[in-house]
Amino acid sequence: MSMANNGISPTGSGLGRIPLEGNLSLRDARRVCDKLREALEAFDSVEIDIASLAGMDIGIAQILLAARKSAVRWGKVFGLAGEPAEPVRAFLAGVGLIEHKDADEAFWLGRGNAERAI
Question: Does some domain include residue 115?
Fold first, then answer.
């Protein structure tokens, strides 16, 4: 996993961006979780760039879902940026995360994904 500046790139206006790259699995879970926690503590908005993510396992997906829920609970904006690569898209479909036309699918596909607690 490649992460510039400890994995969090400030982009201005209180937005932190975390690029996820390569194939991420349980071996990467602690690192991904730590970076998400750091970003959510430091920024009002966090964007996860998945354009270069080649693959992930269910553990990484669960960490992203937990971060999404935490962000909403804390009144932060959290979303994914970039269109997922075909293997990631196939994985998400295979585990049922993008089979319905709803907010969850929009989140995983990086469309209309910014969420904030109301």
Answer: no
Contact 68, 115 (CB under 8 A): yes
Q: Are strands 22-24 and 53-56 parallel, antiparallel or unpaired?
A: parallel
CATH number for the domain including 66?
Answer: 3.30.750.24
* Residues 42-62 pLDDT 10s: 999 999 999 999 999 999 999
CA 107 to CA 112: how far, in whole Å? 7
Which tens digits make up the pLDDT trace of 9-35?
655 567 899 999 999 999 999 999 999
Residue 84, domain member (yes or no)? yes
Q: Single out the residue of 91, 37, 90 nearest to residue 59, CA to CA.
A: 91
Is the whole-model pTM more than 0.85? Answer: no
Q: Does 113 map to a domain? A: no
Split into its structural domains, the chain has a count of 1
